[in-house]
Amino acid sequence: MVDEWELVKQGAEAKIFFTEFYNRPTVVKQRFCKCYRHPSLDEKLTRRRTTQEVRSMLRCRKVGITTPTVYFVDYEAFCIYMERIEDCMTVRDVVNGLLEDSSLQATEKLYELAKEIGVLLAKMHQVDCIHGDLTTSNLLSKNSSNAITIIDFGLSSVSSLAEDKGVDLYVLERAFLSTHPNTEKIFEAILDAYRKNARNATEVIKKLDEIRMRGRKRTMVG
């Protein structure tokens, strides 16, 4: 059923393995225990986080957003077995590659990509899914079709509040501009597509502006 596991990444919350599940290339995300927490509390929190991650992916898929297909969830070992997305690049690498190309065609592709990201985020927020860790490393672009897959819903939640959606956009903005300097116009294209497609975009963008101001004040105060 399951072949040997190959550890490919370890973060603060989980380990990521490559394996095969019924002969299908598979990613296993295994959350590990936190020794500083009481065992019963740790189990409760880890189970809740595992459940929420799976639910967020399913919620997105229902509105046409591509996420890894979930094959199996082991709630005893806190493992999520999911589709391994192959023949793809992170959007981070795609953007960096296009930025290195000064041609008009590369610039047009950048803005097309920005528009697609904005539309995806609008769809995601329309079903009140908050990703919690939006970066260009958590967006994958298929080499064959350029379709975008959203991954790593480990910090996701469900909320209808404009504040939470604004924070989601702010996290992406900070990550985008720090990873890809001097791309303010490209990020604005993401927000423009979001405005045109999100149901309560005006309220969310207003909250984003407020969050930006709070961030600047914290930076000034130190």
From TrEMBL:
It is found in: Nucleus. Signal peptide: none annotated. It catalyses: L-seryl-[protein] + ATP = O-phospho-L-seryl-[protein] + ADP + H(+); L-threonyl-[protein] + ATP = O-phospho-L-threonyl-[protein] + ADP + H(+). The keyword Kinase applies. Its EC number is 2.7.11.1. Pfam families: Pkinase (PF00069). Residues 2-222 form the Protein kinase domain. GO terms for molecular function: ATP binding; hydrolase activity; protein serine/threonine kinase activity. Its main location: nucleus. SUPFAM superfamilies: Protein kinase-like (PK-like). One of its GO terms (biological process) is tRNA processing. The keyword Phosphoprotein applies. NCBIfam families: arch_bud32 (TIGR03724). Component of the EKC/KEOPS complex that is required for the formation of a threonylcarbamoyl group on adenosine at position 37 (t(6)A37) in tRNAs that read codons beginning with adenine. The complex is probably involved in the transfer of the threonylcarbamoyl moiety of threonylcarbamoyl-AMP (TC-AMP) to the N6 group of A37. TP53RK has ATPase activity in the context of the EKC/KEOPS complex and likely plays a supporting role to the catalytic subunit OSGEP. Atypical protein kinase that phosphorylates 'Ser-15' of p53/TP53 protein and may therefore participate in its activation. Component of the EKC/KEOPS complex composed of at least GON7, TP53RK, TPRKB, OSGEP and LAGE3; the whole complex dimerizes. Belongs to the protein kinase superfamily. BUD32 family. This is non-specific serine/threonine protein kinase. It comes from Nematostella vectensis (Starlet sea anemone).
